Structures are given as C-alpha cells and as structure tokens.
Amino acid sequence: MAEVDAQNPLRGETSCSFLLQQLQQIWDEVGETDDDRDKMLLQIDQECLDVYKRKVDQAVKSRAHLLEALADAKVEFSRLLSALGEKTCDGIPEKTSGSIKEQLAAIAPALEKLWKQKDDRVKEFLDVQSQIEKISSEIAGTSEQVESPKVDESDLSLKKLDEFHGQLQDLQKEKSERLHKVLAFVSTIHDLCAVLGIDFFSTVTEVHPSLNDSTGVQSESITNDTLSSLARTVLALKEDKKQRLQKLQELATQLIDLWNLMDTTEEERRLFDHVTCNISASVDEVSAPGALALDLIEQAEVKVERLDQLKASRMKEISFKRQAELEDIYARAHIEIDTEAAREKIMALINSGSVDPAELLADMDNQIVNAKEEAHSRKEILDKVEKWMAACEEESWLEDYNRDHNRYNASRGAHLNLKRAEKARILVSKIPALVDSLIAKTRAWEQDRDTTFAYDGVPLLAMLDEYMMLRHDREEEKRRLRDQKKFHEQVKEQETPFGSTPSPARPLSTTKKVVGPRANGSANRRHSLNSHQNGSRSTTKDGKRDHSRTVAPVNFVAISKDDAASHISGTERLPSTP
Q1: Distance CA 368, CA 323 (A)
Q2: 385 close to 438: Cβ distance less than 8 angstroms
C-alpha cells in the first residue's frame, strides 16, 4: 500500500493507510477499547471483502457476456461464411490469441465486411430472382400476378447465384427465341395475307391483341398458347395458299391450252399475265400482293369457262392441228406413218360423237409424247446419219473433182475448190470409223427395243451394209485399174522398140462410183436394196461380211420396203418397221 501511495502522490491523502491512521487517531482521542477497535476493523475488512466480491461477480458476469459475445461473433462469422459460400475471410488469423476484448476487436471488422457482403449478395439474388419471375410469368402468361421473390439467406453462395444467373440466361434465351418465333409467325402471316388478299390486322388480332401494332400494346405475347395459335394460323393460311395456287395453275394451264388451240392473240393473252405468270411457280415463289386473291381466281374461272364453250365448235381444227404436230415429229425423226388413215380415223370419231373431245385430245397428246420419246431415242443415231450423208456428198464431190483434169488451172474459184478438196479428203477418211460407230449404235438400239431401225422406211443397217459393200467394190476397182495401168506401162516399155502401141487402159471414169444416201435426189433418201438383182453381200452375226457374192450395181434406185428387207442377213431376225 505504501508503494501505491508512493507511486500515486496525488492519491496519498485518500489512501487506505492514511484513512486508517486518521481512524486510529480518532479512536485514540475517543478512547475506544481494543475489542471495539478489533470489531470495527473486522467490519471494515468484511465490507472490503463484500466490495471485492461484488466487483469479482461483476467481472465474472462481464467476462461471461464477453465470452458469449465472442462465441456469438464466431458463430455469426461461421454462418456468414457458410451462407456466402466462403471458406475463410481476409483479416481473421487462422489461430486467435490474446484477451477476449482483443479477440472481439479482431473479429469485428471481418463481421462488418461479411455483413456488407451479405447485404450486397442479397440484393444480387433479389435482382436475378425478380428477373426470373418476370420472364417466367411472361412465358406462362401470368404477368399480372407477379409477386416479389423471397431470397433464401441460408445459401447466398456464388455457386447458387451462378445457378440463378444460368437459369436467367436460359429464360432470356427462351424469351428471345419465342419472340423471334412470334415475329417470324407475324411476318409470315403478313406476307400470306398480302398474297391471299386477306386483312392482316383482323387475322393477327384474333390470335392475340398484343400482336396488332395498332393496339399500342408494349409487349407481345410469347406464351405457348400464342405460339400454338400462330402456328395453326400459318398452317391454315399456307394450306389455303397451296389450294388457291393449285387452282390458279390449273386454270392457267387450261387457259394456255385453249389459247394455243384457238390461236389467241398476244394482246388478249397479256390481259391474263397475272394469272399465267405463276403457272410453274412453287408455293414459296408466289409472293406478289394479291397474286392469289379470290376475285382473281373467279375471273380466271369465268375466262376458262367461256373459252371451253368455244373449244367444242373447233374440235376438228384442234384435232388436225394435233395430228399435224404428230406427223411433223415422225417426219423429223424419219419414221413413216399412214397419215391419210390417221386423219380419216379422227374425222370418223368426231363425226360419230362416240368419243369425248377431251379424251380424243388426251389420246393424241399421249401419242405426241410417245412420238417425242421415240424421236429422242433415235436422235443420236440420226445425228450420225446426217454426218454420214454429208460425208458421202463430199465424197461424191471429191470423186468428180478428182476426175476433172482442169482442176489445177488458174481459173476463178480454183483455190476454193482446192481448200474444199483438202477438207473433203479429211472428212472422207473418217467415213469408215463413222459407219462402224453408226452400225454399233444401231445394233444396240435394235437389241434394246427388239425392232428394226428404219430410216424413211428403209432399214438403216441395210443402207450401211450396201454402202460399205459398194465402197469396197470401188476400192477393188481402183486397185485393179492401177494394176492394169502399171501392166500396160511395162508392156509399152518392152514393145516400144518394135513400134507396137498397146491398147489404152479403161478410163477412170468407168470406175464404179459410190453414191451417197442423198444420191439421185430421192425425197426420202432411200437406197437400192434389191439383193436378188444386185447380189449384195450380207453381214453375219459376228459382224463379218460375206465377199463370196457378186457385187452390187453401180447406181442406186428407190425400191419398196419389202425389197429392202430382203437385204438383211438370213442369220438375223427381221423385226417389223416402226
């Protein structure tokens, strides 16, 4: 105590020792006994103990409160860490030490930081959940019943927040896709209504009022019901468009057929260009406004009905026009038909009235189609026949040119003939290969169709065979004349000293000339095929020619098909001519 008093001189006047001295002085003056003094000192000691005890109790309670506060702070710290999904927090050492107040002072800043982080996190959760609820209600169609979402504060982790963000992104994506679908549907409906001539606003308003821009609705409905209704509307309009287009194309086809039959002027046809312009268009290609309106279809129906009534009166003219087209196809394909009998049959059917005009025209159209197919199958061979005939003409000209002794004179046009001769020699050299190719293709054609390929009624193989035979005879004749000329020249050299003169060789002009298929100016370009008179060579199955028979005559003459058929080899079957 004395040390305390010595260390605190300002408190020395009120220290316990000073007060005890004053009390001793007072007791001495009063004359208190020692027993009384002891009792009073014991009482003072007891009162001091009571004071210390109260202070200790208060200190214990204060410590308990501090410990409880520290424990609560640690629990709150752990709860916030768990709720925020954090494993630790900056500012808090892993091992705490020091007094309780020091520990409280150390954990308080971290708690403040976590509480602030929690408040911020709750706001983030509230924002994202509000957006989720809003978009969900828009998709479900219950936007008027949206309530404020409740945030689960037990789990405010970033993982949970990311889950909500992912859910929000999915909903935003779905909303965007739905909105694009709605806009696409609306755009499609607008285009379809324009093509069909239907009011667009009334059509989309029936689906949902928000789809009509004139209503002033801010947001468009993206619910499942709206999308389904829009899809049904689009399907219905597309089906209507398809049916109308099909109907219009049928009418356009009928119009064109009737116009072609009746030789309608171009001015009158142009009045219905808006109808016939889509005759071959697909459904997606028709996009012009009003292209499939009902009044347009009705107008076309009236026109077709009027023309159809006029068609019956011109049935004969129409039928003979079809027959002329059929005959022209066969003529260009060099196929012979009995035109007179066909025309008499058409006239008899029309006069008898036993056949429907539409059926008669359809039958003739089928004949035309079949004739075109037949002509198409013969086209490749006919092209080669034309080349062969042209080459034969050049060959004939070249023979005449070679026999002209004045061909090298400097006359007018001689250089042109010289150039033509050069080209003709090249072309003539290709004739054997051309004929071989033509024979192979003709045989393949006949095998595929089991019939004879006739050219203007004459079997083409017979024509080719006789040509090759005569070409061979000509080459043999030329070779014979060359040998004869060479022999006479040798004899002349031997007999000249004796004054004898050899007989002149036969002039080259008597050589057999291979006349091409166009020789003698025949209109149908037939060859002479009389095998009995000409002794023509036949071809065996293996493609080899029989050279044992006599040669054919020099010139060609037109003969009948029956005589031409006798030229074909007996080893090959003779199919009927087309």
Answers
A1: 9
A2: yes
Q: Are residues 130 and 148 in contact, defined by beta-carbon separation less than 8 angstroms?
A: yes
Mean pLDDT, rounded, for 320-330: 87
Torsion of CA 231, 236, 240, 246, to 10 degrees: 70
Q: How far apart are the C-alpha atoms of 194 and 199, rounded to whole Å?
A: 8
Q: Give the angle subtended at the CA of 258 by the CAs of 257 and 264, to the nearest 5°.
A: 110
One-character DSSP codes across 473-532: HHHHHHHHHHHHHHHHHHHHHHHGGGT--PPPPPPGGGS-----TTGGG-TT------HH
In this structure, are residues 203 and 233 in contact, taking their beta carbons and an 8 Å threshold?
Answer: yes
Q: Phi/psi of residue 459, each to 5°?
A: -60, 125
Terminal C-alpha separation, the chain: 151
Q: Which of 2-6, 12-16, 301-305, 519-523 has the lowest mean pLDDT?
A: 519-523
3-state SS assignment for residue 185: helix
Gap between the Cα atoms of 286 and 542, Å rounded: 60
Kind of pairing between the strands at 454-455 and 458-459: antiparallel
Residue 554, token pair as written in the block = 């020099």
- DSSP code, position 427: H
**Could you say which DSSP state residue 91 is in?**
T
**Dihedral sign, Cα of residue 252, residue 256, residue 261, residue 263:** positive
Give the model confidence (pLDDT) of 25-45 as tens digits: 998 888 888 888 889 889 988
Tokens of 99: 């007094």
* 8 A C-beta contact, residue 357 and residue 316: no
Rounded to whole angstroms, the Cα distance separating 279 from 260 reads 15
DSSP bridge partners of 539: 545
Question: Distance between CA atoms of 462 and 165, rounded to whole angstroms?
Answer: 89
354-379 pLDDT, tens digit per residue, is: 777 768 878 888 989 998 888 888 88
Higher pLDDT, 91 or 578: 91
CB 218 within 8 A of CB 266: no
Q: Give the closest residue to 245 by CA, choosing from 220, 279, 202, 221.
A: 279
Nearest-angstrom CA–CA distance, 223 and 178: 8
Closest CA to 263 of 346, 321, 325, 350: 321
Alpha carbons 288 and 195: distance in angstroms, whole number: 6
**Amino acid identity of 46?**
Q
Q: Which of 171, 173, 183 is nearest to 227 (CA)?
A: 183
Q: Do residues 491 and 516 touch, judged by C-beta distance below 8 A?
A: no
With contact defined as beta carbons under 8 Å apart, do 347 and 370 qualify?
Answer: no
| Neighbouring residues of 199: CB distance < 8 A, sequence distance ≥ 6 | 193
On the 0-12 / 13-18 / 19+ scale of CB atoms within 10 A, 556 is buried
- Do the beta carbons of residue 296 and residue 278 sit within 8 Å? no
- Decide if 238 contacts 185 (C-beta within 8 A): no
Per-residue pLDDT reduced to its tens digit, 514-558: 445 554 333 334 433 333 333 333 333 333 334 333 233 333 333
Q: What is the DSSP letter of 458?
A: E
Amino acid identity, position 449: R
CA-angle at 237, arms to 234 and 238, nearest 5°: 85
